[in-house]
Amino acid sequence: EDALPPEPEETSAALSRAVSDRVNLNTASADELTTLPGIGPVLAERIVAHRDARGGFDQVEDLLEVPGIGEAKLADLRDAVAVP
Fold first, then answer.
1. Which of 34, 22, 83 has its CA nearest to residue 55?
2. What's the pLDDT tens digit per position in 8-52?
3. What is the rounded CA–CA span in Å between residue 82 and residue 36?
4. Closest CA to 64 of 52, 82, 47
5. Nearest to 42 by CA among 68, 17, 20
6. What confidence tens digit (pLDDT) does each residue in 40-76 have?
7. End-to-end Cα separation, the chain, in angstroms
8. What is the pTM of this model?
9. For the chain, give me the number of helices (H) and strands (E)?
10. Which residues does 79 contact at the CB level (< 8 Å), separation at least 6?
11. Rounded Cα gap, residues 67 and 53, in angstroms
12. For 32-58, what is the HEC assignment?
């Protein structure tokens, strides 16, 4: 038998679980941000300061506006962070 596609609520629950395992860029403290790969205390403070100054992140790519984060670091962070 062919497998049926998942029901929408199943897909949404799976997505919620996947996102909940990530660090929320708009609510994480500097300490929480330091748990991310390549993010130390100084860079974590820059992320928080940038977030506070602009009123939050609209997408993960907005991290590129933070001094010290380039394409390579963004690639490392992409699967570990979320912007709900």
1. 83
2. 555 545 444 445 689 999 999 999 999 999 999 999 999 999 999
3. 12
4. 47
5. 68
6. 999 999 999 999 999 999 999 999 999 999 999 999 9
7. 37
8. 0.76
9. 4, 2
10. 22
11. 14
12. HHCCCCCCCHHHHHHHHHHHHHHCCCC
Residue 18 backbone class (left: φ over 0; alpha: ψ -120 to 50; beta: rest): alpha
Name residues whose C-beta falls within 8 Å of residue 45's C-beta, 6 or more positions apart in sequence: 30
Phi-psi region of 5 (alpha: psi -120 to 50; beta: other; left: phi over 0): beta
Residues pairing with 81 in the sheet: 23
Residues in the chain: 84
